[in-house]
Amino acid sequence: MKSAxxxxxGGHARVISAIIHNSYGNISFVGLKAxxxxxxxxxxxxxxxxxxxxxDIFIGIGANNIRKAVYExxxxxxxxxxxxxxxxxxxxxxxxxxxxxxxxxxSVIGSGARLGNNTIVNTLSSIDHDCVLGDHSQVTxxxxxxxxxxxGENCFFGIHSGTVPNVNIGNNxxxxxxxxxxKDVPENVMVGGNPARIIKxxxxxxx
Length: 207
Ligand SMILES: CC(C)(COP(=O)(O)OP(=O)(O)OC[C@H]1O[C@@H](n2cnc3c(N)ncnc32)[C@H](O)[C@@H]1OP(=O)(O)O)[C@@H](O)C(=O)NCCC(=O)NCCS
Fold this sequence. Notes:
Layout: E1 3-7, H1 11-20, E2 26-30, H2 42-46, E3 56-59, H3 64-76, E4 84-85, E5 90-91, E6 96-97, E7 102-103, E8 108-109, E9 114-115, E10 120-121, E11 126-127, E12 132-133, E13 138-139, E14 144-145, E15 150-151, E16 156-157, E17 162-163, E18 168-169, E19 174-175, E20 180-181, E21 189-192, E22 197-201
Parallel strand pairs: 1-2, 1-3, 4-7, 5-8, 6-9, 7-10, 8-11, 9-12, 10-13, 11-14, 13-16, 14-17, 15-18, 16-19, 17-20, 19-21
Antiparallel strand pairs: 21-22
The protein binds coenzyme A.
Coenzyme A (COA) is lined by residues 122, 140-141, 158-159, 174, 176-179, 190, 192-193, 199.
């Protein structure tokens, strides 16, 4: 039976382990040593990359910026992270999934939806028909996207947030927990409330 290696050793790494544990003979974790700036210490992970090539690789890291950095580093080394799809998730036959995608138990990916590379759809969330979840973005637990919601890269949707159909969310933006989005959200902002309004800019140096 094949072996799996999960980059990360915290809660999200264990979520992945629980989903894949019947499919692999051996599952190992690569501990991540984040530095004070919340970025990875590269030499810790990639000094001995050759040992990883015989296994399926998963990225078990919740923080978008760190997960993106690990994904890009793996790709630079010619390694494509595997997808982790819970057995009781529903993924429509015509949905498109990138690489390194995680779809957690009870989630629904609708017809024509597209999940970018290195995305997470957490527990009991729904990504309705024709939605796009951009690369390195994540929806947390209990999030509902109305049809044709289009998100940019590196977006974050807090627990129990949602969108009505046909809204666009800009790159790097955050929708706070419990918030409901009714109109387009620009790039690099945090929105919250129902209806969701801009709470603050996420650009460096912004108030
Ligand atoms: C997005 C988030 C991380 C922002 O945290 P933060 O940057 O520390 O922001 P703060 O808590 O300081 O809140 C900033 C302001 O927004 C307000 N606010 C917080 N949550 C809000 C919400 N859901 N809706 C509207 N306003 C909200 C705060 O009251 C605060 O207002 P103030 O400046 O007038 O006091 C956090 O609100 C959140 O949603 N976390 C969700 C995490 C999650 O879902 N994890 C799931 C893992 S499965």
